[in-house]
């Protein structure tokens, strides 16, 4: 009878299954604990006839060993399964993951930088949270200039006794030019790409932040002719060899004389279309000769050195290059829009 009992338990032990640690522990208690099935069989061993003790003893040992091995195997299987799940992130994008592309603003910014780099300009960078001294004062802005008003500028800290100590989000990258001029002596030939901020209503044509690239060249005998030729070279590299430019007189506090630069519409070839409002021309940047006051405020002798500066919006150039109708699309991260630039270089 005891041998039949052992064989029955052996068959049960070999078929043991468990899906977690709690179920394994329940099986251990059922078969291997002090009150378990195997210990009960071992307690009956004393009633086995002497001539059968060897055979029954070997069967009991086989049963116990089989139970231990099966429980250990179940534990190993559970642990392996749990280890394999540790790196599983259920929030991760499902495979296959599509390769992305550069943002259109990055594509155009890099192209602009490449063009000016080939003309000898080097990159310069500065903080986005700036002081009034570098954003406005050293750029020849009057203390009561409207650009300092809350309507135009994002202020972080304001000093009622000294406006030059106000902390603000830079409204142009001219602050980088000021920092370079006060720490370097000519010749200086830099371009300053970066994000800028202005307190404007967000529409299809404007945003509270955008990207600029400003350029500065200071040396002896720098003329407006030099500026015109650099900008003509840039326009033809950017928009095509047949591109024409025109310079219209304008005003900026930091340059004198100053100009707005237009390019011939690359869509209609200057004949006139809806894109250029039937004028044949599209405005792309502002420029001019560096005002002598700016040079002096930054520690450069204006009697020895002259220079020119220019500034353009990356979004503006991108709009012209790819005919994007809504400026907000650049910052909405709509994948459908971004996928349109997969073939751009």
From TrEMBL:
<dbReference type="InterPro" id="IPR004529">
    <property type="entry name" value="Phe-tRNA-synth_IIc_asu"/>
</dbReference>
<dbReference type="InterPro" id="IPR045864">
    <property type="entry name" value="aa-tRNA-synth_II/BPL/LPL"/>
</dbReference>
<protein>
    <recommendedName>
        <fullName>Phenylalanine--tRNA ligase alpha subunit</fullName>
        <ecNumber>6.1.1.20</ecNumber>
    </recommendedName>
</protein>
<comment type="similarity">
    <text>Belongs to the class-II aminoacyl-tRNA synthetase family. Phe-tRNA synthetase alpha subunit type 1 subfamily.</text>
</comment>
<dbReference type="Pfam" id="PF01409">
    <property type="entry name" value="tRNA-synt_2d"/>
</dbReference>
<dbReference type="InterPro" id="IPR022911">
    <property type="entry name" value="Phe_tRNA_ligase_alpha1_bac"/>
</dbReference>
<keyword id="KW-0547">Nucleotide-binding</keyword>
<feature type="domain" description="Aminoacyl-transfer RNA synthetases class-II family profile">
    <location>
        <begin position="108"/>
        <end position="340"/>
    </location>
</feature>
<dbReference type="InterPro" id="IPR004188">
    <property type="entry name" value="Phe-tRNA_ligase_II_N"/>
</dbReference>
<keyword id="KW-0460">Magnesium</keyword>
<dbReference type="InterPro" id="IPR006195">
    <property type="entry name" value="aa-tRNA-synth_II"/>
</dbReference>
<feature type="binding site">
    <location>
        <position position="256"/>
    </location>
    <ligand>
        <name>Mg(2+)</name>
    </ligand>
</feature>
<keyword id="KW-0030">Aminoacyl-tRNA synthetase</keyword>
<dbReference type="GO" id="GO:0000287">
    <property type="term" value="F:magnesium ion binding"/>
</dbReference>
<keyword id="KW-0963">Cytoplasm</keyword>
<comment type="subunit">
    <text>Tetramer of two alpha and two beta subunits.</text>
</comment>
<dbReference type="InterPro" id="IPR010978">
    <property type="entry name" value="tRNA-bd_arm"/>
</dbReference>
<dbReference type="GO" id="GO:0006432">
    <property type="term" value="P:phenylalanyl-tRNA aminoacylation"/>
</dbReference>
<dbReference type="GO" id="GO:0005524">
    <property type="term" value="F:ATP binding"/>
</dbReference>
<dbReference type="GO" id="GO:0000049">
    <property type="term" value="F:tRNA binding"/>
</dbReference>
<dbReference type="GO" id="GO:0005737">
    <property type="term" value="C:cytoplasm"/>
</dbReference>
<dbReference type="GO" id="GO:0004826">
    <property type="term" value="F:phenylalanine-tRNA ligase activity"/>
</dbReference>
<keyword id="KW-0436">Ligase</keyword>
<keyword id="KW-0067">ATP-binding</keyword>
<keyword id="KW-0648">Protein biosynthesis</keyword>
<dbReference type="InterPro" id="IPR002319">
    <property type="entry name" value="Phenylalanyl-tRNA_Synthase"/>
</dbReference>
<dbReference type="Pfam" id="PF02912">
    <property type="entry name" value="Phe_tRNA-synt_N"/>
</dbReference>
<keyword id="KW-0479">Metal-binding</keyword>
């Amino acid at each position: 009878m005891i041998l039949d009992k052992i064989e029955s338990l052996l068959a049960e032990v070999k078929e043991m299954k468990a899906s977690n640690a709690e179920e394994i522990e329940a099986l251990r208690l059922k078969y291997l604990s002090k009150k378990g099935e195997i210990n009960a069989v071992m307690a009956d061993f004393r009633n086995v006839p002497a001539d059968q003790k060897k055979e029954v003893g070997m069967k009991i040992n086989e049963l116990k060993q089989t139970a231990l091995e099966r429980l250990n195997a179940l534990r190993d299987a559970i642990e392996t399964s749990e280890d394999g799940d540790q790196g599983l992130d259920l929030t991760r994008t499902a495979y296959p993951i599509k390769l992305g592309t550069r943002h259109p603003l990055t594509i155009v910014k890099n192209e602009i930088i490449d063009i000016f780099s080939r003309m000898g300009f080097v990159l310069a960078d500065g903080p986005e949270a700036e002081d009034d001294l570098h954003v406005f004062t050293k750029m020849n802005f009057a203390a009561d200039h409207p650009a300092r008003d809350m309507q135009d500028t994002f202020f972080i800290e304001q000093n009622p006794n000294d406006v030059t100590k106000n902390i603000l989000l830079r409204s142009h990258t001219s602050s980088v030019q000021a920092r370079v001029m006060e720490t370097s002596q000519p010749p200086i030939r830099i371009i300053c790409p970066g994000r800028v901020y202005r307190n404007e209503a967000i529409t299809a044509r404007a945003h509270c932040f955008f990207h600029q690239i400003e350029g500065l060249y200071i040396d002896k005998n720098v003329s407006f002719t030099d500026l015109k030729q650099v900008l003509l070279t840039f326009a033809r590299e950017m928009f095509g060899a047949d591109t024409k430019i025109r310079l219209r007189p304008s005003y900026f506090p930091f340059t004198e004389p100053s100009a707005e630069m237009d390019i011939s519409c690359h869509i209609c070839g200057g004949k006139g279309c809806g894109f250029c409002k039937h004028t044949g021309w599209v405005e792309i940047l502002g420029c001019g000769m560096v005002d002598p006051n700016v040079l002096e405020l930054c520690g450069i002798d204006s009697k020895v050195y002259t220079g020119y500066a220019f500034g353009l919006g990356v979004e503006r150039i991108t709009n012209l290059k790819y005919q994007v109708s809504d400026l907000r699309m650049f910052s909405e991260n709509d994948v459908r829009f971004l996928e349109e630039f997969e073939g751009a270089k």
